Structures are given as C-alpha cells and as structure tokens.
Amino acid sequence: MLPLPILLTTLLCAFSSTALTLQHEHAKQLLPRAGSLEQITDFGDNPTNVGMYIYVPNNLSSNPAIIVGIHWCSGTAQAYYTGSPYATYAEQHGFIVIYPDSPYEGGCWDVSSQATLTRDGGGNSNSIANMVKWAVEKYEADEERVFVTGLSSGAMMTNVMAATYPDLFAAGIVYAGVPAGCFLSTADEKNAWNSTCSQGNSITTPEHWAAIAKAMDPGYDGPRPKMQIYHGSQDTTLYPQNYYETCKQWAGVFGYEYDSPEETKKDTPLANWASTVWGEKLTGVLAGGVDHGIQIQGKEDMVWFGFT
Ligand SMILES: *[C@@H]1O[C@H](CO)[C@@H](O)[C@H](O)[C@H]1NC(C)=O
Ligand SMILES: *[C@@H]1O[C@H](CO)[C@@H](O)[C@H](O)[C@H]1NC(C)=O
Question: Which stretches within the chain are classed as H helix?
C-alpha cells in the first residue's frame, strides 16, 4: 500500500496526463495535417453518416477557396483524391479540397430520396453542406469561392448540391451525371438506381427541370452557382440524353433560351469535343466518341473556378 499523499499525487498525475492527451487529440482534430488526405470525424451534424476527408495544401492561401470533389460509384474519398487532379492544383492555387466519402455499400450517393433532394432535409446533401460550413469557419475560407465537382454518381450529387444549396456554391462542374431529381425514387428509397433516368428516358422541358431543381430549396431567390456540364457522347452507363436534360435544367433555372444558345464551338476544349455556351452561367461540353470513362479536364476546371 502507498502512503495516502503519494497515492493522491500519483492519481493527480495520471489524471492530468490523460487530460493533456485528450487536449492534444482535440487540437489535432481541429487542425488536420497539411499536405495529406486527413479524415475529419466531428464536422457537425451528419445525419447520414457521410465520411469527411480533407486536403489542406502546405501552400495554403489566406482566406482560401474550397473545392468539394465527389467520387463515383464504387469510389471512395481516397480514390478520388488520387484519381483526380485537385490536390495537386491545391498546392499551386492554395485552396482546400473536401472529399466526401459515401456511407453506402457500393459507394454511390443518395440522389434519390426526398431527404437528400431537400435543403436541410437530413440526407447526404445535408451532410456535405455541413462539411463546407465547418471548413469555411475553421479556415476563414472565402465564402464567395466555394466550388463543387464530381464524376458519375458524384456528378449527380454535384447537380443535387447546386440545387439544394445554391447559396453555398459559386460554381459547379459535372462530369457524366444526370439532372438534379432525375434519379428520384417514387418509393422514397435512399441510394436507389433509376434506370428510366440512367437510360435517358426521363425527358422533359427546361421549365419543368428548373421547377424540380428550384423546389429543392423552395423560396430561394439569390445567386446560383454557374454550371459546366461534361458528358461523353458514347456513354452507355448514363446515356447521353442526360447531357441534354442537364443542360435544359440549368438553362431553365438561369432563364436562358435552351434552343438558342449564345455560341457553339467545335473541337473545344479537345478535338471532337463540342462546347455550347448558353450564357456566362452555363456551358455544356459533349465529348465526341467518349464513353462513361470521361477524363477530368483539370486545367479547364481551374479556369471555370476562376483560379487561372
Ligand atoms: C503557392 O501559392 C501561390 C499563390 O497561391 C502561388 O503563386 C505559388 O506558385 C504557390 N507555390 C507553389 C510551390 O506551388
Ligand atoms: C425514376 O425517375 C423518374 C424521374 O426521372 C421518375 O418519374 C420515376 O418514377 C423514377 N422511377 C422509380 C422506380 O422510382
């Protein structure tokens, strides 16, 4: 048996060193390491348990911009981090990249339930918006320069983020997705596949698509992110009709005349890729001969997001 004073001292030391360790863990959580992909476990309300990963560049700008990069089906935050050019560009331009990680087996995003298709509805979109708010606050980020992009299921989610949180984003880039609301599950299933939409059979007017997008944040009347829509003309996973429907949706939202775009450019940005400009807030790019495996155009993305 230890004499009482020594016992007390021992207990106190044990207690304070535990407190210090906790404090240290807490500090680490508040400021993730720069220059590598780091998980953030406590970014706020996370109703659907979406994973949050972040890349803070070593060369972080003051008042930095943020890009949210959303992975494809069967992808992960890690896979998108290594399989997309954004972390490399982050070092050049000083922005932060947030990589959400799907909570579902199969790694797709919920773009089908009412919850995710509604602002603050408690779905995946709500969790991703909370990641953005966390990062804006922690890094005193520039709220005027928050961007969103994704590929395939992540592209569908990009359209959903732009529709549910139009105030949060300044610009979006969609690589091979479908319009916001096109994967709707009438049975209100989460994370459901919708083959009517994927096969290009959900066809409607710009006005109707716009109404669907606007209903996701009812009453909102402020500025909305400008959108760039890429799609392969030979896509057999998400049929090319989804390119036209997505362009209709945003043309409708912005009040552009879908049938009379401002400008069409052949071989832009690549040979056989055709660009259509409806106005300063909407450009579509139909990639001739390209299937669902469309290549991210990192350099072009930096232009659309205003870094170069
Ligand atoms: C660091 O960022 C600044 C501005 O954001 C940029 O001009 C510079 O080239 C970057 N440095 C490197 C090593 O990329
Ligand atoms: C698939 O989505 C369309 C809208 O694009 C909707 O009309 C249809 O009911 C959905 N299918 C199912 C099975 O929910």
Answer: 4-30, 77-83, 86-93, 124-138, 153-164, 195-198, 206-214, 241-254, 298-304
By alpha-carbon position, which residue is closest to atom 10 of ligand 1?
92
**Distance of alpha carbon 293 from alpha carbon 287, whole angstroms:** 11
Give catalytic status of residue 152 as yes or no.
yes
- Residues 45-88 have pLDDT tens digits of 999 999 999 999 999 999 999 999 999 999 999 999 999 999 99
Q: Which ligand has the minimum distance to the alpha carbon of residue 246?
A: 2
In this structure, what token pair is assigned to residue 226? 């400008």
Give 85-118 pLDDT, tens digit per residue: 999 999 999 999 999 999 999 999 999 999 999 9
122 touches 154 (CB < 8 A): no
Pocket test for ligand 2, best of 186, 238, 245 (most atoms within 8 A of CB): 186
pLDDT band with cut points at 50, 70 and 90 for residue 30: low
Name the DSSP class of 124.
H
**Rounded Cα distance, 236 and 291, in Å:** 7
Question: Can you tell me whether residue 15 is helix, strand or coil?
Answer: helix
The type of residue at 100 is: P
